[in-house]
Design a protein that fits this description.
The protein is built from 11 helices and 19 strands. With 515 residues, it is an alpha/beta fold. The protein folds into 2 domains: 356 residues, Alpha-Beta Barrel (TIM Barrel); 87 residues, Immunoglobulin-like (Sandwich). A hairpin with a 5-residue loop joins β2 and β3.
Length: 515
């Protein structure tokens, strides 16, 4: 993550300096070259495991093997302190159950390169065992995982995390820690380390730095190649360009994608543009060629959001528009994998609204602050839950942020979403979708669309009004199931709160009763 905010900037001069540098860098970069099954109609326990749960895509849309559009809402969980495992931070069954009960269905889970390969060519199987255990816990609660090779400011030598020390080449320049993100702009050693990585300098054993990195990803992908609740692999968090071109970034991604594909042809692979994309600057990254790719992108405002709501909203909207333009050009899938990191729930809600307007899957930063060395100051400002070992109740949860994030949304659509919207002021949710899938297939009267309706928003129950179809789930279900009429081209549903009832947790159910 870059430039996490708590509603204010602690160093106004530094923030202005970083903004200017990012804009300058973006100007330079612009001239550089540069079959899965429905995962929702079946539950985790007693389900079709294996191939039946893998996620694919059709253009910008994540999909299942029946062509249903899949929408994911979730949270980031990246523990940036040794031993770098979510379990060490207390993230386990309680957190997974909390996420599921509130309607979330994906976690972007941090995997730290220095823990995967602490010595050149020596991979740590016990570290990956812990990551795999967390993936399994999430899967038991019906929550997908996006594995994320996470770095901020490259390594702990610069005050960040990510790369093992043996892979950091500074041309002899002295290393020292910086308060994040100042290392990017003030450390010649960090700039040299990134330049050497992007140019694939030879490292230990006469092997290129990128080849080592790609081999580490290959090791991880081989371990998870048969795990159905893995959405995919996020190759590199927020790449800092230093002096690199988009062409160099593309060559790096091509190398890593090839390494992963040598052991895993099932999972989606997500790449990220240079970090300047986060702030509304388009990417010039060339196409990467693989047919199962998605772009993972972030959306932050460099300004103080509480004082610049209009300009921040404009910048955050541009980032989404730039992502849509990228997908239209490449046909790659899209996932908004970071935003928020703030106690400013108005800004968080603004980004959620833009993402929902364009029917994008999203993952907010972050489930917990967890002593984050490169995040908000203090780290609790970025947290949804303060202690991940405990449930999200009482003083252990930022309820205002949870109210914004735990919203109704279509989990799967038997067709293509046309629009959906949630009005938090009156708890009215509206969805309209076409029964024609992105690939052109027309769904029929037995094909099920599912809508998450969190109990937090509908504690006393809800009413569901459907045009062009009917509800086939139980009256209090936290996951509404809708099937279209025999001749319906479009289906719409409106959900409104009621009194005197209740809403169950939106757990995954067995096959839709409409079939």
């Amino acid at each position: 993550m870059l430039e996490k905010r708590s509603g204010s900037c602690l160093w106004p001069f530094r923030c202005a300096y970083l903004t200017a540098l990012l804009l300058c860098t973006a100007t330079l970069l612009s001239s550089c070259s540069a079959t899965s099954t429905n995962p929702r109609n079946k539950g985790v326990g007693g389900t079709d495991a294996g191939a039946n749960l893998f996620v694919g895509h059709s253009g910008q849309w994540l999909t299942d093997n029946q062509g249903n559009v899949v929408i994911l809402h979730g949270m980031n969980m990246v523990y940036k302190r040794p031993p770098y495992t979510p379990a060490a931070a207390g993230f386990g069954d309680v957190a997974a159950r909390t996420l599921s009960d509130e309607g979330f269905d994906v976690v972007r889970l941090g995997v730290i390169y220095s823990a995967v390969e602490p010595r050149p060519g020596m991979f740590d199987g016990k570290y990956l065992d812990s990551i795999a255990a967390t993936v399994s816990i999430l899967a038991r609660h019906g929550v997908y995982t996006l594995l994320d090779f996470h770095q901020d400011q490259m390594s702990d030598a610069f005050g960040g995390e990510g790369f093992p020390s043996w892979s950091v080449q500074t041309n002899g320049l002295p290393e020292r820690p910086y308060v994040f993100p100042l290392g990017y702009t003030e450390s010649p050693a960090l700039a040299a380390a990134f330049d050497n990585f992007w140019s694939d300098r030879t490292g230990p054993g006469g092997i290129g730095l990128q080849e080592r990195y790609a081999s580490a990803w290959k090791y991880v992908a081989r371990r998870f190649s048969n795990e159905p609740f893995i959405v995919g692999y996020d190759l590199f968090n927020e790449p800092w360009p230093a002096a690199a071109s988009n062409g160099e970034l593309a060559r790096f991604y091509t190398r890593v994608i090839a390494a992963i594909r040598s052991v895993d042809h099932r999972h989606m692979i997500f790449y990220e543009p240079f970090v300047t994309f986060n702030f509304g600057i388009p990417t010039q990254l060339p196409r990467l060629g693989d047919t199962a790719l998605g772009m993972s992108f972030h959306d932050y405002c460099l300004q103080i959001t509480t004082q610049n709501e209009t300009s921040c909203a404009a910048s955050e909207t541009r980032a989404v528009q730039n992502a849509l333009a990228r997908s239209e050009s490449t046909r790659d899938a899209l996932m908004l994998t970071e935003f928020g990191a703030s106690t400013d729930e108005q800004d968080v809600g603004s980004v959620v609204g833009v993402a929902d307007l364009h029917q994008l899957s999203w993952i907010e930063w972050a489930y917990c602050g967890c002593d984050d060395p490169t995040g908000s100051i203090p780290p609790t400002n970025e947290a949804l839950v303060y202690d991940p070992r405990l449930p999200a109740t009482g003083t252990n949860v930022n309820l205002a942020t949870l109210m914004v994030l735990a919203e109704p949304y279509p989990r799967t659509v038997a067709g293509t979403p046309i629009s959906y919207d949630y009005d938090l002021s009156n708890h009215e949710f509206q969805l309209k979708y076409s029964t024609r899938a992105p690939n052109g297939h027309r769904f029929g009267s037995g094909d099920c669309t599912t809508v998450v309706v969190p109990a937090l928003q509908y504690p006393h129950g809800y009413s569901a009004i459907v045009h062009g179809g009917r509800v086939v789930s139980s009256r209090d279900a936290g996951l509404i199931q809708i099937v279209p009429g025999p001749r319906s081209l479009d289906v719409s549903i409106t959900v409104l709160p009621t009194e005197g009832g209740h809403t169950s947790a939106p757990t995954r159910s067995m096959a839709c009763p409409g079939r």
